[in-house]
């Protein structure tokens, strides 16, 4: 942990609890003068004091962490990217470190602005106008993405419920299909009916208590769909409570969030938290080995690894993405500070896209962002057929990444020099916000910045001009 000067946050904590300096110092077991030095940023906040804050006030130490600060900086960079004025990274870092509440307010105001733009665009469309107030509409699926991102992709109440049902139903990795069929029948009177393959994978009739599954699903996919339906049967109230969130601003977003939470529960039931974390650590996070142990696919393991952030038993904080050949990101989950910009798109130097050229092979990359933070990425393709000759199938590249300081815990770091700066590939969060002017893959200049071009010099222009 680097030296953390968090005086403003300490003063805010004290003011929120209506405590005097002497009272807070006594609660933390330190002198009033030492606390005063901490609040004046004359001394850094230490780990023992952070742990004491957690013990006395129940404060999550993550709120004072470098990761939390980096998350805030990333979100603020998105918020100010459309402001028209260039703000240095150092200024944003100072704001995140000393006045995080101001930073979060800035992000909230930007979100409200985007929502206002969306409403204006909708009204313009209804009136038949051919203009819009902005360039981007915050779609319901993006609201749901923000909903999970705000929770670090971890929903404790669903993880606990999944472990309880897994235990009560006597499930195991190799008996989970039969066990879920028996649990649905015995607990809810629901019978399973597997019909012809079709576009609808799962449908439930409450009147007849029949759960229809497509015959085109594998046994593992049937298990996931049964577990998803079980979430609606047993945890409907809890899921409904979770979706009452200001991030979800419309009914469609809340409906999507309900499905997302049910899917989260399904993954947690197939891969129960405690058992899965223990196996992941024992196997050094070997994705394919974990898939063999629990009988699931590469993507399912990666998705679950990105959720292991229980405060009392944290796994490696991973970032998970799923992309197609066109660069569309259909899934994006982050357990910590990293995420690609909502404004900038993605980077062609990112190893995830190279996976399409080497299908089925696990690729590795040490990648460094413009702010100097370095990550280890693992990528591989996953695919499924269309079910019949001539029907197109699906192919995606799955990416799983973590901060370089956690990379030593992964089997994928073997043979890599994690301490060599030259081993890292410089990538960015997309050309619109990336600050690398000399990148050979740059498609256009950053938002709000002009690129100095001299027509009398033969220097190549790093993005298309015609």
Structural summary, described in words:
By secondary structure, the protein is α+β, with helices and mostly antiparallel strands. Among the domains are: 7-100, Orthogonal Bundle (434 Repressor (Amino-terminal Domain)), CATH 1.10.260; 139-270, Arc Repressor Mutant, subunit A. It has 17 helices and 11 strands. The strands form 3 sheets. The chain has a 6-stranded mixed sheet with strand order 7-6-10-9-8-11. A 3-stranded mixed sheet has the order 1-3-2, with helices on one face. A two-stranded antiparallel sheet has the order 4-5. A hairpin with a 5-residue loop joins strand 6 and strand 7 (329-334). It is globular, with a radius of gyration of 24 Å.
Q: Which features does this protein show?
A:
466 residues, 434 Repressor (Amino-terminal Domain), Arc Repressor Mutant, subunit A, 6-stranded mixed β-sheet, 11 strands, 13% strand
Helices and strands in order:
Layout: H1 7-16, H2 21-28, H3 32-39, H4 47-57, H5 66-80, H6 89-98, H7 100-127, H8 140-150, H9 156-168, H10 176-188, E1 191-195, E2 202-205, E3 210-214, H11 219-234, H12 236-242, H13 251-270, H14 273-282, H15 287-294, H16 298-305, E4 309-310, E5 313-314, E6 318-323, E7 329-334, H17 351-354, E8 363-368, E9 374-384, E10 394-403, E11 425-426
Parallel strand pairs: 1-3, 8-11
Antiparallel strand pairs: 2-3, 4-5, 6-7, 6-10, 8-9, 9-10
Helix pairs in contact: 2-3, 5-6, 5-7, 6-7, 8-13, 9-13, 10-11, 11-13, 15-16
GO cellular component, one term: cytosol
Pfam families: HTH_3, Peptidase_M78, ScfRs
Family: Belongs to the short-chain fatty acyl-CoA assimilation regulator (ScfR) family.
């Amino acid at each position: 942990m680097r030296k953390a000067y968090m005086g403003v946050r300490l003063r805010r904590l004290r003011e929120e609890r209506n405590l005097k300096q002497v009272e807070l110092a006594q609660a933390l077991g330190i002198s009033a003068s030492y606390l005063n030095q901490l609040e004046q940023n004359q001394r850094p906040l230490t780990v023992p004091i952070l742990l004491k804050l957690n013990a006395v006030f129940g404060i999550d130490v993550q709120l004072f962490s470098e990761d939390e600060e980096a998350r805030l900086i990333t979100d603020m960079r998105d918020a100010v990217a459309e402001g028209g004025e260039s703000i240095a990274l150092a200024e944003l870092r100072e704001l995140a470190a000393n006045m995080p509440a101001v930073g979060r307010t800035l992000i909230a105001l930007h979100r409200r602005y985007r929502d206002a733009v969306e409403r204006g665009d909708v009204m313009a469309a209804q009136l038949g106008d051919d203009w819009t107030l902005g360039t981007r509409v915050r779609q319901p699926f993006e609201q749901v993405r923000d909903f999970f991102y705000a929770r670090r992709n971890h929903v404790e109440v669903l993880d606990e419920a999944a472990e309880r049902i897994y235990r009560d139903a006597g499930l195991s990795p190799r008996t989970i299909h039969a066990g879920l069929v028996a649990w649905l029948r015995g607990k809810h009177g629901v019978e399973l009916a597997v019909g012809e393959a079709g576009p609808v994978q799962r449908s439930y009739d409450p009147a007849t208590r029949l759960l229809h599954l497509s015959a085109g699903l594998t046994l593992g996919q049937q298990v996931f769909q049964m577990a998803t339906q079980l979430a609606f049967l047993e945890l409907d109230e809890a899921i409904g409570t979770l979706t009452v969130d200001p991030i979800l601003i419309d009914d469609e977003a809340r409906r999507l969030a309900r499905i997302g939470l049910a899917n989260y529960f399904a993954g947690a039931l197939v891969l129960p938290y405690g058992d899965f974390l223990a196996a992941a650590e024992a196997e050094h996070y070997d994705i394919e080995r974990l898939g063999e142990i629990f009988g699931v696919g590469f993507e399912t393991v990666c998705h679950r690894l990105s959720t292991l952030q229980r405060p009392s038993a944290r796994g490696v904080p991973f970032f998970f993405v799923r992309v197609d050949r066109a660069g569309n990101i259909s899934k994006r989950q982050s357990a910590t500070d990293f995420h690609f910009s909502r404004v900038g798109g993605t980077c062609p130097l990112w190893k995830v896209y190279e996976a399409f050229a080497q299908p089925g092979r696990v690729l590795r990359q040490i990648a460094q962002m413009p702010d100097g933070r370095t990550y280890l990425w693992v990528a591989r393709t996953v695919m499924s057929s269309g079910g019949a000759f001539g029907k197109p199938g699906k192919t995606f590249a799955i990416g799983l990444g973590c901060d370089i300081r956690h990379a030593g815990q992964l089997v994928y770091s073997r043979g890599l020099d994690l301490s060599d700066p030259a081993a890292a590939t410089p990538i960015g969060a997309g050309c619109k916000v990336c600050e690398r002017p000399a990148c050979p893959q740059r498609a256009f200049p950053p938002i709000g910045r002009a690129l100095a071009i001299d027509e009398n010099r033969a220097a190549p222009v790093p993005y298309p001009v015609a």
